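Subject: for your reference before the review

Hello V.,

The reviewers asked for a structural picture of the protein, and I figured it would be easier to keep everything in one thread rather than splitting it across files. Below is the amino acid sequence we used in the manuscript, unchanged from the supplementary table.
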Amino acid sequence: MFFNVFMKSFVMAEGERYCLLVEKITGLPLYFPNLFVTTQVRNRSLSSSTMKSALSGIAVLLNFMFERDEDIEDRFKQKFFFEINELDAIKDFCQIKFSNRVIKTDSASAFTLAELREFNEKVSSQTEYVRLTVISYYVKWLAELLTGEARDKNVALRISKMAKGLLERRPVKKNRNIGLVEKGLDEQQLVILFELFRPESEFNPFSNKSVRVRNRLMFLLLYHLGIRGGELLNIRIKDIDFNQNQLLIVRRADEKDDPRKEQPLAKTLDRRIPLKETLVKEIHNYILNFRRLVVGPRQPDYLFVTHKSGPTKGLPITVSSYRKVMGIVRMAFPQLYNLTGHRLRHAWNEKFSELMDSMSNPPIEEIQEAVRSNLMGWKSGSGTATIYNQRFIKRKGHEAALMLQKGMVRFPKDLTNE
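And here is what came back from the structure prediction:
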């Protein structure tokens, strides 16, 4: 939530998802920020989520200027660029967490920016990194545009120094301890999840029977197939081959008949995934006995739909609703404090590694990586497999370390008794 601007998302007639940065007072789109996103992001065929991220970063900068009662465009036209102290101030401003609190300047009961600072809530280093990156690119582009081709070398140098100064103030990406981060789920968590998602379970946090069946199927597909949340919400009934027991994962950007403004997307490559018989039965049961009761004749054939009565009944479930489901499950048990749909993707990769390790004659490493990449939709040889396999690698490392220690030669008694 920002002081003077907001982001407006909409779907074009041809299905393209688009967003604009709009001034709150006038309701009019801001010219230069939207020109930047259109020419530098959208026209490079980057996703709508990238556009939103860029506009969000620019909004932070505009609110920084709003707080100082300055117009960035007027400044740059006069060749008055950010100084070192201002670059530091922008960095500090990029650390403020705006999203969790409502900010209004016309209400005495709302939080002001000064009060927000007192809460000392900060965004993650990754968010700060993205904000500063976007702002650096934007101010360089805007300054060059407003100063025109007639700018001299000194002006060009000052613009470059300003943009570089923002990049230099980005937080350092700390990858040294990536092996210590366990992103999968342990066995206890998985046992709890299977019981919690069971439709007849007394621990199931959802009251509606059809919603319970739908959510269980969502969980089973995430766990057994290792697909992304966006891929899950993008599944259409026509993607399911009930004769061959296969599921087709397809990338469908800008679908015209998808009513969701934030369209779930498959980031990975198209692929066919085999389905075991019990999974096919679960899908068949949901479609015939629950889904068909809420979907209208002209509504799109997305597999997972909204069951709640209202204008969205029968429409494909939104990204926010999917996240809400995960949030409710996360709150049901303390052991599920770190649950996300993506952790089930990590869990799948751990199970895959365990399966390969348990074989008496496993495929060579290159074949294993190729098979894993094919099922996950990654380009073969991309190295992504290692990222999703940290817990298994760590555990095997611990086992190897213990075996090595047990096999080491003991010190002579006269040395150990010193």
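For the response letter, the relevant points are probably these. The longest strand covers residues 5-11. Residues 100-109, 176-181 have pLDDT under 50 and may be disordered.

Happy to draft the paragraph if you're swamped.

O.
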